[in-house]
Every structure is written in structure tokens, then in C-alpha cells.
Structure to design on (134 residues):
């Protein structure tokens, strides 16, 4: 499942389907989901969403505009990106650009149900994995 994780990180800049990943790995979708969950503790789609949102946050904090960031992370419609970003982080992407402290943007994260877990841990983990995959 390391290959699946690396593939998802390498494709964080685009929208991908589980079918496409399963085809790349020459396995069924159900086997991919089951194996990925056992190896990484979550679904491939959730992992890919976290990778995309971490990448988007980096672009926004580097000064990219929301529309440009949406396209850079594979969203065809900036409105869809804004909704996904806000759902994930709890803040609209337009605010992420102006907050100097990353923790202000990353915590709390609506995607986590565990109160002790914040998106800063999620994003830092994904960013470390992105660096290690390169």
C-alpha cells in the first residue's frame, strides 16, 4: 500500500478516482479500499483529499489566488474548491492567505471527529509524506 500512498501524493494536484488508482495497482476497488484502510487507517479518498487540501494551503500561503489554487489542485470550478476547503479546514480559502499563523488556519478541522486531533497534525503529516515521496 506504500505504492498507493505515493501515487496519491504524486497526484495531489488533480482529481482522481478510486477506479483509476485500482487500475494502476492492478487490483479491485474493494481490495484497494480494504488494504489501504488496514495499512493507513483510512480510505484512499480521504487521504487524497487531505493531500490536496495541504497542497492548496501551501499555495494559498505562498500568495496564490483562490482561483489559481483551485486549478492547481485539480478543481475545475473555484466554487467547488472553496466549499471543499471550507468543509475541511473550517475557514474559507480567502482567509488562509492572510493568516500569518498556520495554526489559525489549520485548527480546528471539521474533518476530524476526535477533539484531540487537529488538522495541523493532518496537514503536517501529509506534507512530510509529500517531502519523503519526492
Amino acid at each position: 500500500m506504500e505504492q498507493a500512498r505515493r501515487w496519491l501524493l504524486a497526484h495531489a494536484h488533480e482529481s482522481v478516482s478510486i477506479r483509476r488508482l485500482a487500475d494502476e495497482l492492478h487490483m479491485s476497488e474493494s481490495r484497494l479500499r480494504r488494504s489501504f484502510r488496514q495499512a493507513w487507517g483510512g480510505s484512499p479518498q480521504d487521504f487524497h483529499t487531505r493531500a490536496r487540501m495541504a497542497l492548496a494551503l501551501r499555495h494559498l500561503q505562498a500568495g496564490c489566488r483562490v482561483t489559481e489554487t483551485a486549478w492547481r489542485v485539480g478543481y475545475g470550478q473555484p466554487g467547488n474548491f472553496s466549499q471543499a476547503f471550507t468543509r475541511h479546514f473550517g475557514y474559507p480559502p480567502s482567509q488562509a492567505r492572510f493568516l500569518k499563523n498556520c495554526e489559525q488556519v489549520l485548527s480546528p478541522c471539521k474533518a476530524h471527529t476526535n477533539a484531540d486531533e487537529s488538522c495541523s497534525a493532518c496537514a503536517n503529516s501529509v506534507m512530510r509524506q509529500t517531502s519523503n515521496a519526492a
Observations:
- Residues 101-121, 126-134 have pLDDT under 50 and may be disordered.
- The chain has nine helices and no strands.
